[in-house]
Structure formats: C-alpha cells, structure tokens
Task: structure prediction
Amino acid sequence: MKKEATVLDKVCTPERGVDCETLHKVVVLAIEIAREGREGRKVGTMFVVGDTDRVLAASQCLILDPLMYHPDEKKHIENSNMRETVKEISQLDGAFIVSNKGVVISACRYVNASSEGLNLPLGLGSRHLAAASISHQTDAVAVAVSESSIVRVFDNGEIVSEIIPELWLLSHFSSHISTPFEEDSKDQVTVRSK
Result:
C-alpha cells in the first residue's frame, strides 16, 4: 500500500499539504465508483481533498447535507459503511469534501467554478471545470469521476493524472491462492487452482 501512496505523492505539488494516504484512498474509491457505477448505470462525481475550510467557503450545498451531524468516526473514508454510503450518494449531484484526515466532511456540494486562468482540454464537462477551478483557488486536490469511467486528478488547476479503472484494477490484481497452483486459460478466461 505504501508503494501506491508514493506514486500519488508525485502527482501532488509538495506545497499542497494534502495527505497522500488519504488521497490514495479517495482515488481508489473513485476508481470503484467509475468501474461499478450504481444501480446498473454509470455515475459521475467529484471529491475535493484537503484545505477544507477554504473549499467549504467556495462551495454550497445543493440539498440538505446528508452527512451533517454524523460523528467523524462514522464518516472516515476507510469505514466500509461510509464507502457504500458515498457510492449511494454519488448518484446525486455535487461534490464530496474530504479532510486530510480522511473524514468525508460534506456531500452534494456545488463548487463555485471560475474558468479564469484555466487551460483545460476541450470536451470536458462542468464537473471537470469545477475540479480544476477549486484546485486552482485553494490548496486542495480534486478527483473527478467521469461518466465515461475515467478518473482524473486535478492539482493547481491542471489535470495531473488520468486513471482508466480497468488498467488500474488489473495492475493491482493479486491471487489469493498460495503457490503452487495450476493455471489454465481458454477463451479469454484464466483459472488458477491448487
């Protein structure tokens, strides 16, 4: 796990102060959402990690915040119940705000976006503009999940990483069967057995 956190550490500018382990956990959750979707359909969402006071000041709730008044220990990104809750809430509009400590502070937030000073590729939507904008205006890093199942990480108003979930998942595959085992492949299916 430390190896992946080191890779993501290179993605962020050092001045940001965003906790790389928290960012890693958020990216993995974003990849799961991009890959799985919800209720049989693709889902797009956004996470903003770090600099929570400034991010909250530069955003507002679209609906009553479903996470408000719940204790922080239940809203930690490592909590499996919270992860499933985030996946459900991701079907709604708005961004998740995540603290450096890994607590999902707020959900369904509209991020006030300005395109001033941004240079994004054509074809990206308003979610990506909002992610670039908030990472440009604050010391936060934004993670946007596209409905086309690509996860993009924004830092200082720029795309610093694009992750294709299938490739990420394949590179992190490990067999739970200890050696020795037999492997047989046929018709693009591989089976490992003892």
Q: What stands out?
A: Residues 1-6 have pLDDT under 50 and may be disordered. The first strand starts at residue 45 and ends at 49. Helices lie at 2-11, 20-36, 52-57, 80-89, 126-137, 165-171.
